[in-house]
Write a structure and sequence with these properties.
Strand content: 25-35%
Order of helices and strands: EEEHEEEEEHHEHEHEHEHEHEHHEHE
Protein name: Zinc-type alcohol dehydrogenase-like protein
CATH superfamily of the largest domain: Medium-chain alcohol dehydrogenases, catalytic domain
Pfam family, one: ADH_N
Number of strands: 16
Keywords: Metal-binding, Oxidoreductase, Zinc
Distance between the termini: 12 Å
Mean pLDDT: 95
Family: Belongs to the zinc-containing alcohol dehydrogenase family. Quinone oxidoreductase subfamily.
Organism: Metabacillus fastidiosus
Helix content: 25-40%
Structural class: alpha/beta
Shape: globular
Length: 346
């Protein structure tokens, strides 16, 4: 089967940073599905894993996590899917990725592809949707059933125009929250407003001063999707007593938790690979939440966050997408569809 992998961890402009290869088609066992990949999307985690380091792989390492496609084989223990089902998912960081024509994935982290979306539109959603859903409803414990209470609560989403922010704004709006999103350019400000943000502030300026201009003194929830270190003190200053902060961005510097002590505020991490990485008892929750996302899409409650589509799926195109992600200025999601072109056999 066609695949794109790496042996060396190099900067993206290097010829061998990603290479076209041929690999044996995998065989599903247990609860695995074998999915024929129709489209993938590129995330910051792809770039982080590929980033230059001294390590050299003995066998090609296949990156990529977001995907949509068709189930072509199932393991003997599968319960939720059958051959021919259209699916979308974000995979596991501990297994070979989706830069491949056929891909094995545990059915417990797979959802039904939205009927109203194409494969490319669907591929834009899984990783960011899982991250946003878990951050909002599992980590921040935002009430989803009784939305009336949320009308009087507000959330600050830092980095609203990115992949996760684009879906988090929509889910927060669906939950009934009042939303403040950060964006620094006119095009990103327009994007987050279009998705449902009630107010937009600049993440390069004081949060407290900008919120005061909006007659907002504090926020109930904060979802940090950009540079935890940079925004830490800003977040501590505006979080409401007994409020909650969730971040998906690892820190490099010391985080002074004392700034949250007097407010009895909560800080929690979100990492969407936790459940699949550790095979947690509730791993199947990602299956159910992806099905819920699919349902909300088909009902028109939320929409895909695709903003750029490339083709075909090969090393050159994926390199282009990595370069765009590395600029740090992408809006929404970048999707790549269709396997075509000559492949180099290792």
């Amino acid at each position: 089967m066609k695949a794109i992998g790496l042996l060396k961890y190099l900067s993206i402009e290097k010829e061998e940073s990603l290479i076209d290869i041929e690999l044996p088609r995998p065989i599903p066992k247990g609860r695995d599905l074998l999915v024929k990949i129709e489209a993938i999307s590129i995330n910051p985690v792809d770039v982080k894993v590929r980033a230059p380091k001294e390590k050299i792989e003995k066998e090609p390492k296949i990156l990529g996590w977001d995907a949509s496609g068709i189930v072509v084989e199932v393991g003997e223990e599968c319960e939720s899917f059958k051959v021919g089902d259209e699916v979308f998912y974000a995979g596991s960081i501990t297994r070979p990725g989706t830069y491949s024509e056929y891909h094995l994935v545990d059915e417990r982290i797979v959802g039904r592809k939205p009927n109203t979306l194409s494969y490319s539109e669907s591929a834009a959603l899984p990783l960011t949707a899982i991250t946003a859903w878990e951050a909002l409803f599992d980590r921040l414990d935002i009430e989803l059933i009784n939305k009336v209470e949320n009308e009087f609560k507000n959330i600050l989403i830092i980095g609203g125009a990115g992949g996760v922010g684009s879906i988090a704004i929509q889910l927060a709006k669906y939950a009934g929250l009042h939303i403040i999103a950060t964006a620094s350019r006119q095009e990103t400000r327009d994007w987050v407003k279009k998705l449902g943000a009630d107010h937009v502030i600049n993440h390069y300026q004081s949060f407290k001063n900008q919120l005061a201009d909006l007659q907002i003194n504090e926020v109930d929830f904060i979802l940090c999707l950009n540079n935890t270190d940079q925004h830490w003190n800003n977040m501590g200053e505006i979080i409401k007593p007994q409020g909650k902060i969730c971040s998906i961005v690892e820190n490099k510097e010391f985080l002074d938790l004392n700034i949250l002590k007097n407010k009895s505020a909560t800080f929690v991490w979100e990492f969407m690979f936790t459940r699949s990485m550790y095979h947690t008892d509730d791993m199947i929750k990602q299956h159910f939440l992806l099905n819920k996302i699919s349902e909300l899409i088909d009902k028109g409650e939320i929409k895909t966050t695709i903003n750029k589509k490339l083709s075909p799926i090969n090393a050159a195109t994926i390199k282009e997408a990595h370069q765009l992600i590395e600029t740090g200025s992408t809006i929404g999601k970048i999707v790549i569809e269709n396997f075509e072109g000559d492949q180099k056999i290792l």
